[in-house]
Specification:
14% helix, 170 residues, 2 helices, three-stranded antiparallel sheet, four-stranded antiparallel sheet
Length: 170
């Protein structure tokens, strides 16, 4: 079974639903003489898709953080994906989830490796986070993580980690 096999039933099911709706309107009895109007609309689903490159599982590794520093700790990495489908170009958007230990939506935190009640807040940004790519062209995204001094100045020593899901959609 290939990756594209799940699309055919959706398109077929959509066509059947549109045909059934058309038949229901076309075969409905007319109750009054004269002229009338019919509004016709259809939603066409995209056959495009985007996928991360196989084996791409980026790691965002911060350098050792000095708690007396007044400068933010910054780390970068890259990942790549490509989009395919029926269009020659594909509009895409890439998003980062909140991670395993977020305290609220958008409030990412890494958890201490041994003191599981200790957390270190951080942010993630991606460039580009959206755009238009040619069909089957590889798009490289730079991911930047930042830990503000206010987050690490009171942190206890040790290793902090988190896992964040990345999603790319056409």
């Amino acid at each position: 079974m290939n990756d594209w096999s799940h699309r055919a039933p959706t398109a077929g099911r959509t066509r059947r639903l549109l045909l059934a709706a058309w038949l229901a309107v076309a075969c409905a009895p007319s109750f009054a003489a004269g002229n009338g109007g019919l509004v016709v609309s259809a939603a066409v689903l995209s056959n495009n898709n985007c996928r991360f490159s196989i084996g791409t599982n980026p790691a965002l590794n911060f350098p050792a953080i000095d708690p007396s520093s007044t400068t933010a700790a910054v780390a970068t990495t890259t990942t790549s994906f490509k989009c395919g489908g029926s269009s020659s170009t594909v509009s895409y958007a890439i998003k980062a989830g909140d991670g395993l230990y977020s305290s609220a939506p958008g409030a990412r935190q890494m958890r201490h490796g041994t003191v599981v009640t200790e957390f270190l807040a951080y942010s993630v940004s991606m460039s580009p986070s959206s755009g238009v790519a040619a069909k089957n062209a590889v798009v490289t995204v730079t991911i930047t993580g930042t830990v503000a001094p206010s987050a690490f100045q009171g942190a206890i020593a040790g290793t902090y980690t988190d896992t964040v899901a990345l999603t790319v959609t056409p």
